[in-house]
Each structure stands twice: as C-alpha cells, then as structure tokens.
Amino acid sequence: DSGVTQTPKHLITATGQRVTLRCSPRSGDLSVYWYQQSLDQGLQFLIQYYNGEERAKGNILERFSAQQFPDLHSELNLSSLELGDSALYFCASSVASGGEQYFGPGTRLTVT
Amino acid sequence: AQSVTQLGSHVSVSEGALVLLRCNYSSSVPPYLFWYVQYPNQGLQLLLKYTSAATLVKGINGFEAEFKKSETSFHLTKPSAHMSDAAEYFCALTAGNNRKLIWGLGTSLAVNP
Asked: Nearest residue on chain B to A32, judged by CA atoms?
C-alpha cells in the first residue's frame, strides 16, 4: 500500500458526460501528479500540482482539468467524454516537486 | 533534454532463468534513476532507485540494477525469475533542476513455467 488513495476504482459512463476522479496523496506529500494509461498510448503524464498550484503540464486535453485543494487532495475533471478517453487514470504523489513518486491504485474509466 | 529508452517492449524468460531488462538514458547532468513495476490491474510500485550513492542498487523482490555512466545504462536484473515477476516494468529518470520524471515506454515481462 503506497498511501495514495483514489476513488472511485471503476467508473462507467456514456460519451458526452463529465466525471470527476479524486486522489488523496500520502501524508506529508505536497505534489500530486495525474497520469493516463491506455493500451495504445502507454503511460502519459497529464498534469502536476504542488501545494495547490499547477507546476507542470503534459499531454492533457483541453476537455480535462484538475485542481489541488488546500487539504492537498486533488481532483481530475474529464468532460465531453469520448470513447478514446477510456483508460486507467493514476494519481501519484511526492514530497517535493519532482523525484520519486508513489502511485495510487488507479481509476478505470470506461466510456460507452 | 533528458530521455529514457527501454530496449525490448516484451521480454520472455523461463522460470528460474536470469531476468535482464534494459534501460538506457540520456542526460546532460547527473541523473537520478528509478525502476517501477506494475502488476496486472494495479498501480506502479517503486522497485529501486539510484541517487548517486552506490552504483549497484538493490531493490525489493530480489531485483537489482547497476548504474553505468560510461554506458549510460541502468539495467534491471534478477538472478532467478519467478512466476510472480510477470509484470510491466518502467524505467524513469529525473535530473538537475527539472525534477519531472521522464518515463520509458515500459517492458512487459512474461515468465514461462
């Protein structure tokens, strides 16, 4: 158990809908990272927050957004969902900005 | 710019055989290097890390990796494969002031009985 929690574990929704994925980092970690993993794209870095502020952006679509709250938990919002958004979404956390990361168990999103 | 290359997207070994997963990196400054493992339907778990101390790093589950600056490599090895080692393995690095993790594409390890 890494100490990073993600909810929900599974999510099934229809195209065009909006969903919110939630992540709680390890106690004491200030950075949160979001990743998307799919069979055809592999592991893709989406976005990083450090102590409430956006720190780095990766291959995140405009339909996706994230935020980190004062209690350091983070949410990833996915809107206007498409079939191709079906994937595993991981959250990771680290003490500082960068360095080794600890991953949550992931949320499996299925868009039908 | 930094980069990580994992040679071989799929590796298959027999149970009890040596496991060798290859990772080469490119970095203009001394890197920190990591190996992560992802078991089916699970998140990534840190196996081991190199942070400029000993060049031979021991990790969990009997894995180890050796940092070779002259070869810009950080290959992962295990003397004797076990069925439970079947998983996806990712090599990653961070370097200098840019502490963002740079990921390899992963190597899928299959262990045959």
From this structure: B100
Read off the pLDDT of residues A85-97 as tens digits, 9 standing for 90 and up. 999 999 999 987 7
Q: Judging by beta carbons within 10 Å of its beta carbon (0-12, 13-18, 19+), is residue B35 exposed, middle or buried?
A: buried
Residue to test with chain A: of B49, B89, B99, most A Cβ within 10 A: B99
What is the number of other CB atoms lying within 10 angstroms of the CB of residue B4? 22
A57-72: per-residue pLDDT in tens?
Answer: 888 999 999 999 999 9
Partner-chain residue, chosen from A4, A92, A98, that has the shortest CB–CB distance to B94: A98
Q: How confident is the model at residue B98 (pLDDT cuts 50, 70, 90)?
A: low
Q: Which residue of B has its CA nearest to A37?
A: B43
Number of Cβ within 10 Å of residue B33's Cβ equals 23
